[in-house]
Amino acid sequence: MIEWRRWAVPLGWLALLLAATLGMGQLDGLFRWIEADSRQVIYARADFLTLLGRHLLVVSVAAVLAILVGVGAAIAATRAWGRDFLPLVSQLASIGQTFPPVAVLALAVPVLGFGTLPIIVALFLYGLLPIVRNTLAGLEGIDPGVMEAARGMGMSGGQILHQVELPLAAPVILAGIRTSVTINIATAAIGATVGASNLGDPIISGIVNGNTAYVVQGALMIGLLAISVDSLFSRLPLTGSR
Amino acid sequence: MIDLIHVTKRFGAATAVDDISLSVARGELCVLVGTSGCGKSTTLRMINRLIEHSEGEIHIEGQQIRAFRQETLRRRMGYAIQSTGLFPHWTVARNIGLVPRLLKWPAAKIQARVEELMALLGLAMEEFAGKYPHQLSGGQAQRVGVARALAADPDILLMDEPFGALDPITRESLQEELRELQARLHKTIVFVTHDMDEALRLADHLVVMHQGRIVQQGRPLELLREPADGFVESLLGGEDRGLKEAALLPVSQRMLPLGPRRLARERIGQQASLREALSVMLWRHSERLTVVDDDDMPVGELSLRRLVGARSDD
Ligand SMILES: Nc1ncnc2c1ncn2[C@@H]1O[C@H](COP(=O)(O)OP(=O)(O)OP(=O)(O)O)[C@@H](O)[C@H]1O
Ligand SMILES: [Mg+2]
């Protein structure tokens, strides 16, 4: 019973998202009021379900890559043999985020061509920093007494990592992943400018054609998606306060 | 059992431990004392290779510690530290079972061992087994730390201020328990402390360190009676040394057999220390005490003159 209540809020948001995805057409009247001059007020070049799916796909692929690389690099940089790389790793991650995703897109398109690939690269780089930073903070933040005891008891490096460091750092690492994914759900919209069709399409198309209703629809979908995902993260057992 | 032979440890240019030699016999409780930063913890941590020594040799049962894999060596030695280092995400029972699990004991044996240790350290199974470290008091956490160190029944225990930061009463009861454990289980223990009374009470073998060197080592009474220099003398209590020595000697050593005189009204157990006897005399304004055995039967008497008397006639 209690388990169910825990998930009530994220499920509520997900239901809204689903309703908006499938029922956008029903809001014709509302959008006609916003955008009285246009012949068409509901974005129809692709249906919202497809756009949502592509959006999620791009964000997920970038997130998985960023988690693998980010958590991996932070773990490596906190091992005895990798300590020398610690400053380098945190600097590289910072640079990844200071570099605007739009610039990454501009640079990536000539190399990777139009489509989904450049936006995945841009999101990957942009999402790396929160993950690296939080993983480092989580691992470095473990009570030195706990680490000393773990070593003193005769645990091997791998045992310490899996049984002590990762479980203790998990809440902080997950918080980093949550930030990274939530930011990237919004950022992914710019992928529409390089032909990666996703929930950014209605926004870009609305701006180009001067159709505010399209912009609102895209923004609404992205907002609902971001809130749903963020709310799901907040209910994961490890991120809540203990 | 443990031999340090001309061992030196340098951190960069600084020498933390400077050419020390130390032998701890099997079943002996060796206590390291000294001012802060003198190298006690470093010495202890070199024994389980949390710190690698720079020079000299360290042997366990005649074998160089570098001949063992680090993990194998450490699993053979219990290690308890002041901050306890209990894993906050594990229950008390799981924390205690750590080393047996690393050694791949069967689950039933681990369970039995955890129960045995919790009983030994006065932690009620039903109450504490499922608790997390943050739900324990400082004293309970330190007991769990000691239980975890004992879990795989190691011959050697390394303890770095394991009872630090405890109130005197809890501390004394834990010291008492350690003494009993030691008598029963014959562990070889190296123990670091700041508390001189604790050191004198526990030690079979007392080692005084100063600036990375051993200035004197031996039985506590030897050090009290013949300190090598002013540093040892002041560390062991300066003018208070008389009382510290009295705390180590039992009443039975100085009492006289019952004489024809009437029994003194105030009583003292024969196992009590001379220090306690002196305190009773001061408190009761009495120069004579009747010494009684465990069943409260008079077995002798102790006079103030006897108590402060020359050592030669013990
Ligand atoms: N990892 C390290 N790197 C550099 N110097 C160290 C390191 N560990 C200890 N030291 C130095 O070695 C000296 C001895 O330290 P140690 O921890 O052994 O002292 P201690 O006798 O245990 O002191 P305390 O009673 O305060 O615990 C100190 O000067 C300390 O600063
Ligand atoms: Mg110390």
TrEMBL record, chain A:
The chain crosses the membrane at residues 56-81, 102-129, 214-233. Belongs to the binding-protein-dependent transport system permease family. Its main location: membrane. InterPro entries: ABC_transp_perm/SBD, MetI-like, MetI-like_sf. It comes from the Bacteria. The keyword Nucleus does not apply. Residues 52-233 form the ABC transmembrane type-1 domain. It comes from Halomonas gemina. It is a multi-pass membrane protein. Keywords: Membrane, Transmembrane, Transmembrane helix, Transport. Pfam families: BPD_transp_1. This is ABC transporter permease. It is found in: Cell membrane.
UniProtKB/TrEMBL annotation, chain B:
Residues 2-236 form the ABC transporter domain. PROSITE patterns: ABC_TRANSPORTER_1, ABC_TRANSPORTER_2, CBS. The keyword Chloroplast does not apply. Pfam families: ABC_tran. InterPro entries: AAA+_ATPase (IPR003593), ABC_transporter-like_ATP-bd (IPR003439), ABC_transporter-like_CS (IPR017871), CBS_dom (IPR000644), CBS_dom_sf (IPR046342), P-loop_NTPase (IPR027417). The keyword ATP-binding applies. Keywords: ATP-binding, CBS domain, Nucleotide-binding, Transport. Belongs to the ABC transporter superfamily. It comes from the Bacteria. PANTHER family: GLYCINE BETAINE UPTAKE SYSTEM ATP-BINDING PROTEIN YEHX (PTHR43117:SF5), OSMOPROTECTANT IMPORT ATP-BINDING PROTEIN OSMV (PTHR43117). Residues 255-314 form the CBS domain. One of its GO terms (molecular function) is ATP binding. It comes from Halomonas gemina. This is ABC transporter ATP-binding protein.
